[in-house]
Amino acid sequence: MTSFSLVADVGGTNTRVALACGKDLQTDSIIKHRNADYEGLPQLLTAYLEGQNNPACKRAAVAIAGPVKDGAGRLTNLNWEIDKDTLVHLSGADRGAVMNDLQAQGHALGHIDDANLVTLKQGKDENPNAAMLVIGVGTGFNCAPVFQTAKGRFVPPSEAGHLTFAARGADQWDLSQFLETQLGHVGVEDVLSGRGMERCYAWASAKAGANKTATTAEILTAAKADDPVAIEAIGAFVTALGNVTGDLALTLLPFGGIYLIGGMSRAVAPWFDRCGFDAAMTDKGRFGDFLNAFSVRLVEDDYAALSGCAHFLARSDNQ
Question: What contacts 101, CB < 8 A, 6 or more positions away?
Fold first, then answer.
């Protein structure tokens, strides 16, 4: 009888679940669930397994959009929790793992089809054996460095979305002050996320004297119709993303490349040239040209985190 791995990518809004054989995802088993339809992750995973006729699972791994410690994690933007003991119990697996979703994305690097990678900036000094960096912008924001070691790949967790947002230039400073009156502390995720885009629009609208609000989808649609407030909001978002990307690159030196993932990354990537992403990323004084060493790519594979979970489990079996 075939034994499977249960893998799941749990975001703030949706959860993708699949079965894998070794490193290979069973594509016909992938199902995307709306989190709002379930009371919690155990209920969602149980329903998924029942829908797959309760397959024999030898291993299980879950990637969540939130901090993980000692095999237990809680989603940042949803009141859901999971731990590896619960995961093992509900799946019937011999071994379980809970990791941050950006860690799973890091384990997927090198296993993503070239058709799902878009080069946004070609680095001058790219080294495929060097450290890499995954930056996720979606419902929230986070990053994960990826290191190749003598004992295998090491992808440590982080909660970079909650670093203080470092404004650069008059507009970013004005945006940060606008948000500080509402939020107190302004973190990176408060600007660079789905809600962050809506905040950028509220700021741009207030600046224009209109004080309007809009959803992210409405902002992107309005920008395509050349609405100046929507375009300024996207410009503020893209500039902030470039600035933060440059800071993270200087911190971690990812000569192996920077990989942008998440729905918001994909939504704003077409605006990078017009809104000055590269100029913002390299706006680091005498180290500006140094930032040209790093490649930046957009990941368009919705199932990369699932693949990362499968590769992590398969790699662990061989260690």
Answer: 9, 10, 11, 63, 64, 65, 136, 142, 305
Q: Which of 108, 135, 151 is the last residue of a domain?
A: 108
Could you report the per-residue pLDDT of 186-240, keeping only the tens digit for each?
Answer: 999 999 999 999 999 999 999 999 999 999 999 999 999 999 999 999 999 999 9
What CATH number does the domain containing 68 carry? Answer: 3.30.420.40
Check whether residue 87 and residue 180 sit in a common domain. no
CA angle 122, 157, 8 (to 5 degrees): 90
Same domain, 92 and 13: yes
Residue 69 bridge partners (DSSP): 72
> Do the Cβ atoms of 189 and 141 come closer than 8 Å?
yes
Total domain count for the chain?
A: 2
Given the structure tokens 């192996």, which residue do they identify? 256
What is the model's pTM? 0.92
